[in-house]
Design brief:
Layout lengths: L1 E2 L2 E2 L5 E3 L4 E5 L5 E5 L1 H7 L2 E6 L5 E2 L4 E7 L3 E5 L4 E6 L1 H5 L2 H5 L8 E5 L2 H4 L4 E2 H15 L10 E5 L4 H13 L6 E6 L4 H12 L2 E8 L2 E7 L3
Parallel strand pairs: 13-14
Antiparallel strand pairs: 1-2, 3-4, 3-12, 4-5, 5-11, 6-8, 7-10, 8-9, 10-11, 14-16, 15-16
């Protein structure tokens, strides 16, 4: 399900209050991670610390901590159990959680101890839609198809000048990184399409909110 551009896979269970999800892998193991909502709130993650395998975790206890330039917070476990494995890739490359919170950026695999009791505390996406929608509005969350590494707010600037600066910013970035550009120029969308055709860079996402255009440009060359 997509809620205001934020993705929440239908097959998962959600701990809405703690912004975590759970996938049932078998009758003996589940995988846990954080939602796209938390990723958007936290911003670009720069450090992830996770507890060692073998630890016993109670529901609500932290599996580790996530840190960005503006956020530091725990990852509360949605269930009690034995910590079977943590995702080393998420530790080595924290950005993986931003880019792929439901797949490559998972947090931990757990052997539940009282799953049938605690499962009723989790929600299917159909039941979680209303509270998630309210949280997105309350927290002013903005999700994009590619997570931005940088921000450009160009209000009151002609689009031609903005695109010159955009090219300069991209030249200092690595391939695969993205930039969030905000413009109020009414010609911005047409100019952006022409610019991407000319430069070969990727317009990964865009939308208009009121008088403002939001673009996510991904460096591909």
């Amino acid at each position: 399900m997509e809620i205001d551009h934020c993705i929440f896979p239908d097959e998962l269970l959600y701990d809405v209050g703690n912004n975590t999800w759970l996938r049932i892998d078998s009758d003996k193991e589940v995988t846990v991670g954080v939602t796209s909502l938390l990723s958007a709130v936290a911003g670009k993650l720069i450090r992830v610390k996770l507890k060692p395998s073998g630890a016993t975790i109670k529901r609500g206890q932290s599996l580790g901590t996530l840190e960005s330039e503006r956020f530091v917070g725990p990852v509360p476990s949605p269930v009690s159990g034995e910590l079977v494995q943590t995702n080393q890739r998420s530790v080595d490359l924290p950005r993986t959680i931003n880019d792929s919170p439901y797949e490559q950026g998972w947090i931990a695999r757990i052997k539940p101890m009282q799953f049938f009791t605690e499962k009723i505390l989790l929600s299917k996406i159909q039941d979680a839609k209303v509270p998630l929608t309210e949280k997105i509005v309350q927290l002013r969350v903005r999700c994009f198809k590619a997570f931005p590494d940088r921000e450009m707010y160009e209000i009151g600037t002609e689009c031609s000048a903005v695109l010159v600066r955009l090219s300069e910013e991209l030249s200092a970035m690595r391939i695969g990184e993205a930039i969030h550009l905000v413009s109020d120029d009414p010609t911005a969308y047409v100019e952006m399409i022409a610019w991407t055709d000319r430069t070969g860079q990727s317009l990964a996402d865009w939308r208009k909110e009121g008088e403002l255009f939001h673009f996510i440009v991904k460096k591909v060359r």
